Amino acid sequence: MFKTVLGITIHVRIKYTGHAKEKIAEREIPAKLVEQAIAKPDIIINAKFGRKIAQKLVKGKILRIVYTADKKNYTVITAYCAKPERYGVKK
Fold first, then answer.
1. CATH number of the domain to which 77 belongs
2. In this structure, how many other beta carbons lie within 10 angstroms of the beta carbon of residue 74?
C-alpha cells in the first residue's frame, strides 16, 4: 500500500495480528476498506500504549482501525464499525 505524508508518497506494509484477522473476518470488514481507512482516514486519533485509531465514515457508520505504526510498517490490532454519534461524528 502507498501512503502520502507531507506530499511524499511512501510504500508501507500492513500486517495483521491474529486477533485482527479473526475480528475482521467475524465482522465481515473487507481488507480493502481497512487499507483505505489507514491510507486516507477522516481523522487519526492517538490512543493508549502508542496506538493510533484511523477513523473513516463508510456507508453511514464509522470504521475504526486500531493500529501501531513505524516508518514503513502498520500493524492492525483490530477493526470495528460503530454508530457515528458514539464518537461525535455527524453523518
1. 3.30.2310.20
2. 22
